[in-house]
Design brief:
14 helices; Jelly Rolls; transcription; AraC family transcriptional regulator; 51% helix; 299 residues; alpha+beta; Homeodomain-like_sf; elongated; DNA-binding
């Protein structure tokens, strides 16, 4: 596993000259050496990367479907995430790669806010697919960023560059939400699949063995990243994955309380809670009443 610690090191591996700025750079694909284009490698970057590929043709790899635009494609990657390139992952002639080291964000509000953008932890096949107009918006912002860091560095440089980066991220949020909307029918199928996965836990009494299912575990069973699933659910239902799981647990708890003679502690154990107090707390938080009060109110 290759760890790429700096932008300078990445430029060297790609057969490029030294970066004009040590903490941020924009690479055009047609400048990358041919040898680097065909390499097979697994690597971890220690910095953020944002990729824009115009008219990318690898539909299956990047998750494009019949409801998506077929112009540009974007991927986002946070530091310390494993990525792999295979020999058949040929780069298009045109495209841009934005690299930004976390140190460049120090002292700026974006340093704290950047990880609120969940798409930095999406998988490659959860790419953002752009319309021609959207691609032009992103390309202009990338060009603005490059022109600024190529200018004379002064006390205003960081704020101006990062304001452009933050604008780009806000547009990405808008475009991803548009993509969730245009994929409504397909995403509805994912919601059904999620509920089927949860139903299996309830039907098999698996929760007594495994405990409460985590967002990570459920996401793995659905072959989707945790961040993408939560953002998709938030767009569709107003709740993230954890909230959706908790609501399903409470719904099941109500059913058991009303249709069985199990005690509250037995219900808690059946639903995977290690401590009855945790079950009581969640139930009361969701329903404004305790499990026992809920059960007695129907007797």
């Amino acid at each position: 596993m290759l760890t790429i610690s700096s932008i300078s090191e990445q430029h060297q591996l790609l057969g490029l000259g030294r970066p004009d700025h040590p903490l941020i750079s924009i690479v055009e694909f047609d400048a990358i050496a041919m040898g680097a284009r065909s390499a097979s490698i697994s690597f971890i970057n220690k910095f953020y990367t944002i990729t824009l590929k115009p008219r990318c043709i690898s539909n299956e790899k990047y998750g494009r479907n019949r409801h998506d635009f077929n112009q540009g494609m974007m991927n986002f990657c946070a530091p310390d995430i494993k990525r792999a390139l295979e020999p058949n992952d040929s780069l298009p002639e045109k495209g841009w790669l934005l690299n930004m080291h976390p140190d460049f964000l120090i002292g700026h509000p974006l340093h704290r806010r950047i990880m609120e953008h969940g798409f930095f932890h999406y998988e490659v096949n959860e790419a953002l697919h752009l319309s021609p107009r959207e691609e032009q918006v992103i390309a202009r912002l990338l060009d603005n960023i490059r022109q600024e860091y190529l200018s004379i560095i002064d006390p205003y440089s960081q704020d101006i560059i990062l304001s452009q980066v933050e604008t780009l991220l806000n547009y990405a949020n808008r475009f991803y939400n548009r993509q969730f909307i245009t994929r409504k029918s397909i995403n509805g199928d994912l919601l059904i699949k999620l509920d089927l996965v949860l139903d299996k836990y309830f039907e098999d009494d698996a929760l007594m063995i495994t405990g409460q299912p985590s967002v990570k575990l459920i996401s793995e069973q659905m072959n989707i990243s945790p961040n993408y699933l939560s953002d998709l659910l938030r767009n569709m239902t107003g709740q993230n994955t954890q909230q959706h799981i908790q609501n399903r647990v409470i719904k099941k708890a109500k059913h058991i309380l009303l249709t069985s003679d199990l005690s509250v502690s037995e219900v808690a154990y059946k639903l995977g809670f290690e401590h009855t107090q945790s079950f009581n707390k969640l139930f009361k938080n969701k329903t404004k009443t305790s499990p026992l009060e809920f059960k007695n109110s129907f007797n």
